[in-house]
Amino acid sequence: MKTLAFPGVLALACLFSAAACATPELQAELDRVKAERSDIEAQFETRNRQCYQKLQVNDCKRDVQWARSEALRPITVRQRSLEAELRQHKAEAQRVKAQERREAHEQRGRGVARPSDAAPAQPPRQP
């Protein structure tokens, strides 16, 4: 069993960025919902193909389509909410990363003297 060298690093990352902690769970849940959706669609595709064996094909296909829509409705709602939450976490992570870059850039800017800010090396010539 491996142990983390710095167990506090993950906790610190979770403290500053919700995306670092929540994204794997969200992605796993989204993958599960997508798999469930594809299973339901495969079942209804099979039922749709069976309609061609019946006399009233159009009525059968309409009923299958209605049942498919009803079965997928809660899954679609859950999938959309998970995708929205995942987008929010990614956006927050990007905001945090941009803020860190800005702060690092400001730190570098304070530590390095700019040639335009420094006093001229030679006094200006007098004509």
Q: Which band does the percent of strand residues land in?
A: under 5%
Q: How are helices and strands ordered from N to C? A: HHH
Helical segment tally? Answer: 3
Cα Rg: 29 Å
Number of strands: 0
Q: Label the structural class.
A: mainly alpha
Gross morphology is rod-shaped
**Overall pLDDT confidence:** 80
Helix content: over 70%
Structure, described:
The chain is mostly helical and 127 residues long. The protein has a domain at 14-101. The protein has 3 helices and no strands. It has helices at 7-16, 18-50, 57-111. The chain starts with 6 loop residues before the first helix and ends in a 16-residue tail after the last helix. 2% of the residues are buried. Residues 1-19 have low confidence and may be disordered.
Short summary of the structure?
By secondary structure, the chain is mainly α.
Which properties best describe this structure?
single chain, mainly alpha, 3 helices, about 75% helix, disordered N terminus
